[in-house]
Amino acid sequence: MPTFNMGETLNIDKGNLFVKLKAKGDKIKFRLVKGGYYDGKHFIKNDQGWTVSFCPRIMNEQPCPYCQKCSQIKAEALRIEDKKQREEVMKEAQKFQVKMTFYYPVIDRETGLGKILKTTLSIRQKLEEEFKNGVDVYEYDYVLTRTENNPTDYYSLVRMDSKQCKDLTDSEVLEQGKIGSMDLEEVITGVKQSSQDFKQEDRVEDIVIPDEPEQPKDDNLPF
Fold this sequence. Notes:
With about 220 residues, the protein is an alpha+beta fold. It has helices at about 15, 55-60, 65-80, 85-95, 120-130, 170-180, 185-190, and strands at about 20, 25-30, 35-45, 50-55, 100-110, 115-120, 140-145, 155-160. Residues about 10-15 and about 190-223 have low confidence and may be disordered.
């Protein structure tokens, strides 16, 4: 029989933990707590709908037939001189691309609650760029907005001025401790030890991903 202790997060509670910007105009003001977790999945459409599977290349550093298929199609496209035809072949390759999702433990500064923010590679890159430029990304509030301006600017990330960043309240500090102590791997999937912080060796910028199936892609990288 399942048991639990007071204050313990259960599977049925996990839906309240995660936050994702799902529609145009959605936004969140947040404070990062620590580094996060990522995973890679393939979304393959078929007659029955979507087949979703973890990418063995991302999750286990093993060969992935979908990634290989994607690379093969792209290589074929690059040999096509006609621009329109080349773009059509590239669209076919996109069907096999890996989608990466990044999960960051944060404090929602509007509600004061600890959350796990689900976001994209492009936001990971923007935060990394801040870090490389000497910004202490854990000391500022950020506002993430789903703008849908165009495929290369699908999300906006703005760092608030230090004067606008209020100190964490006592309750937010408690939330910070709770969300920061969670084992993200266990909470999210339990598939792989891929905990990451802002370190130079954790690089995945060469991977191009779609945003969501049947939605404009978050694709700010070259093929």
